[in-house]
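User: Hi! Is it possible to get a structure for several chains at once, not just one? Here's what I have:
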Amino acid sequence: MNRALRLIARRALASIPVLLIVVVLAFLLLEMAAGDAVDAYLLSIGGGDATVAQSLRAAYGLDQSMPARLWLYLTSLARLDLGWSVAFGRPVRDLIVERLPNTLLLMGSATALSFGLGSALGILAGARPGSFRDRALSTASLVLYAIPSFWLGLVLSIVFAVQLRWLPTSGIETIASGRTGLARAADIAAHLALPVGTLALIYTALFLRVMRAGMAEVWSMDFVLFARSKGLSRARIVLRHVARNALLPLVTMLGLQAARMIGGSVVIESIFAIPGFGRLAQEAVGGRDTALLTGIIVTSAVLVIAVNLAVDIVYALLDPRVGASERGA
Amino acid sequence: MRTMRRLLATPEGATGFAVLALLVLVALLAPVLSPGDPLRIAGRALTAPFSDPAFPLGTDRLGRDVLAGLIHGACTSLAVGLAAAAAALAFGLCVGLAAGFAGGRVDEALMRVVDAFQIVPGFLLALAFVSVVGPSVPVVVLAIALGAWADPARLTRAEVLSVRERDYVAAARVAGMHPAEIAFREILPNVLPPVLALSAIIVAAAILTEAALSFLGLGDPNTVTWGSMIAEGRNVLRSSPWLSIFPGIALVVTVVGVYLLGEGLTRALSGRREEA
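Assistant: Yes, the chains can be modeled jointly so their relative placement is included. Here is the combined structure:
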């Protein structure tokens, strides 16, 4: 455990300069946008004259040089102050904190579902590389992975929500239904079935491919040959020797995909009208709200770092070699 | 040329090549196949597909020809996807080459920037960039490239590190070659194959990102794209789902073609390596 903790502490420290670069990027984006926070604020309260703007700028230090403004931005971020959202007339931090749980629920369910399904199908495909079953599953996953998530979401909602009327088309729960406890959970589950299903289908294809490729690689290794020569049953070799070793790249994939998943949540949440983090990004674009957008970018970078740290922990627990020599991976 | 023959010998490569060749042909011949502006109103609104020979795939809410949109959309999708991927690859190659070749502090600094671009979701970055600068084709290309150059940069650096200490590089150094010449003439050609194998994935991702951006209304408003057609069809999804379904199928076919070509290319290149 000590070993894993040391590893995590080192990784967390190493991510600080990276996060700093992200913040500078976000700041540059803010600088590129037309108008500054004072213009945005005045717009949101219905305008003000030039002297008001001038005094506000002086009060917030926005009349200073660019490096000074960058320093101001950094220090306010250090206080967890992400700025003021013009589009919503509220602090950016409150909006993000409010929306994040919905997205985490969506992402978490889709990831869990696709990880399980994808690795199981990957084992089926990789058990006999080159067999008909392998080729059928590989082709299906290739096509599935080529489908744009927003289009798949639309098609699924045409079928299941418009034609069959099995599931609701949008939202995260029935508005003002007064449901509590299990009834509310079931309502949310019904609303999330389509978006989670859409994302899970596409990620299943990805995990299937990674698992299959990993297994194809492990088959040629000496210890598999040894297991065969011992006369172990094929099922035992597939599950205990090949699949187990192919599972590690899959865990790595989870970390690598975290950023892509957050990006993908934007379109999915906009299709199914889920009030989450991704939809917030779209609303920020619609409202020309650069402060909100940069706040979202910085937050998502922190999220990705957190996911990768979690993946590192899981990896260290699964693979005793990690961090054992303290050489760093 | 040998690589090309090998590529066409694999079933994936041949299929992918056929699909993409057809699409490129359609895109290039768009002005001939469907003359005039695809965004003009051509007929009665919401004609069902396969009902009017003048509009084989029907018309949309404003009476615009769906087939004409698909044909001209192929042009935008391929052009934006290829341009963005080319920009991302070129920039990634340069950064990776510089980092791997220079080493030390330069390497450290460049790789932290690469890290930063890898942890920020590329789609969010593209979204923010387009929304700040304003939607037009070059901006969309740049925005997609901005979120896609980090992967090739990292791969290039790793390859450069594995090639850098080889004897022929040492020989070039001893012979007094300029470092830039060593980087581009000796190292780059050996680094290129694995990065090229990655290029199919980048092109596919760029096409999908472009579609998603224009689906969200952040494409160039004056060009027709498959993503914007899907978004437009969404308004009448209940009554005329085909308006969204056709451009989606076109997208899937294109991306599958790119993936297949990429798999064929990987096989062809790895075959060449085994031979060497």
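Chain A has a mean pLDDT of 83. The CA atoms of residues 88 and 95 of chain A lie 8 Å apart.

User: Great, thank you!
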